[in-house]
Amino acid sequence: MANQISVRYLGHACFEFNFNGTKVLMDPFVTYNPLAKHIDVSELKPDYIILSHAHQDHVADLANIQAQSDATVAAIVETAAWVRKQGVPDEKVIEFNFGGTLTLPFGKVKMVYALHTNSTPDGAYGGAPCGFVFVIGDKKIYFAGDTALTLEMKLLEDLNLDWAFLPIGGHYTMDMYDAVKATDFINCKNIIGMHYDTFSPVKIDNAEAKKVFAEANINLNLLELGSSIDL
What we know:
Metal-dependent hydrolase, RibonucZ/Hydroxyglut_hydro, globular, Metallo-B-lactamas, Metallo-beta-lactamase, Chain A, hydrolase, single chain
């Protein structure tokens, strides 16, 4: 049976994947996102929540969404420890680390490198930040998380990625120009932009972003907040 994979953009770096009927929520930050006022957090009922790191703008809605959905949460070891402290039952937390691959009912999730920092909202050490490669049937999707441009991305170039989610806002992550370089490192032509326009430091010129990606013959998708796309 063919894969039925889609993703809905909920703002910033928050996306809701639908992997053949299983919903996987990435980096839940909606309530405090000034651009996401029309998104109803109470309607989010993911089966899994996956965290790239524990900065506030990636975990602010974690506890509420997990409580209302009974989702299983996956994260790097130290961030997973913080998740447990938020009242998430131990049996609903999966901790893993770089190089580790989870085999879950919807597919596989491998943790890969990201160049950034990481702390929990209370200022504690959150372990390292990370990205993920999803393998869903014959589809391979890279979710970079918050990252600068790094040569570690070249380790992904032979995976034949179908899609990549890359930050493009600059200031806290790589900008649109470094993201174009990243597409060459990872050998992927289909890009969904993230981590831009939410706050003043990461506001970008959307037309310029589309231009620089088009000039590199890269398919950049800047999704409307709340909209979905098939992958």
